[in-house]
Amino acid sequence: MIICENLSKLFDAKSGINNINLRFSPGIIYGIIGYNGAGKTTLLNCIEGLHIPTSGSVSHNNIKTTNENDFLPYRRKIAFLPSDDYLYPKMTCMENIELATILRTGKNKLLPETQELIKYFDASDFLHKRFSDCSTGMKKKAQIIISLIGEIDTVIWDEPNDGLDIITNAKIKSLLNNLKSKNVTILFSSHVIEFLDNFIDYYILLKEGNVIKEGEARNLSSLSELFSDSLKLAESVFVE
């Protein structure tokens, strides 16, 4: 169980998240949606422990992210994928994967699960390219593979769809559904609303750092309509 309690992370008067109260349970796929600047990345970074809250707290199984010594062992079980590229650009994708394996597991050989993911994403053809020379899709695949190294019980992915084709997006859905069946907690944001429709279990709509709507996705006719209605509301406010 992940709990955000009165969580705020403010960078200035107009950016960040404000007084967020959310609970995330195992075996559920959560979709974090909203426009650019709505606070999606800030929320996910706080949940992962990258940001120290301005106020409030985030806890994983009653362990607060700010309690560094206690949270560190749990953090190793989080499959975190930031929206920005973070791997070493002059190293090959394989070198990045090997290094991540050592750092996350202490082992100097690829795990069988990692080797399976390389096959699953058809990544072997580009793994010996320098990361900086890879396409956006190749970079995203390598980072997804790295995020899933080791024993995982939480997935936190920020915009995993960027640069990926239809086939790879379908593979991501299948992979996440498999992790869901293993009682993994799954949180991710995406601008591709069509990807989320008929896939996520629970939606959280952010606007200007606040949760303005949330609920079970099955109770919606479509997420696209929810997003469209929110856009119309924003337009009407802007016009006024």
Keywords summarizing the entry:
single chain; 240 residues; alpha/beta; six-stranded mixed β-sheet; 37% helix; globular
Structure description:
This protein has 240 residues and is an alpha/beta fold. The protein has two domains: 2-77 and 151-239, Rossmann fold, CATH 3.40.50; 88-149, no CATH class. Helix content is 37%, strand content 25%. It contains eight helices and ten strands. The protein has a six-stranded mixed beta sheet, with helices on both faces. It has a four-stranded antiparallel beta sheet with strand order 2-1-4-5. Helix 6 links the parallel strand 7 (154-158) and strand 8. Helix 3 (93-105) packs parallel to helix 5 (136-147). The longest helix has 17 residues, at 223-239. It is globular. It starts with a strand and ends with a helix. Mean pLDDT is 89; it is low at 234-240.
User: How much helix is in the residues?
Assistant: 25-40%
Main sheet specs: 6 strands, mixed
Structural class based on helices, strands and sheet pairing:
alpha/beta
Overall number of strands: 10
CATH class category label of the largest domain: Alpha Beta
Topology readout:
Layout: E1 2-12, E2 15-24, E3 29-33, H1 40-48, E4 55-60, E5 63-64, H2 68-75, E6 78-81, H3 93-105, H4 112-120, H5 136-147, E7 154-158, H6 166-181, E8 185-189, H7 193-196, E9 202-207, E10 210-216, H8 223-239
Helix pairs in contact: 3-5
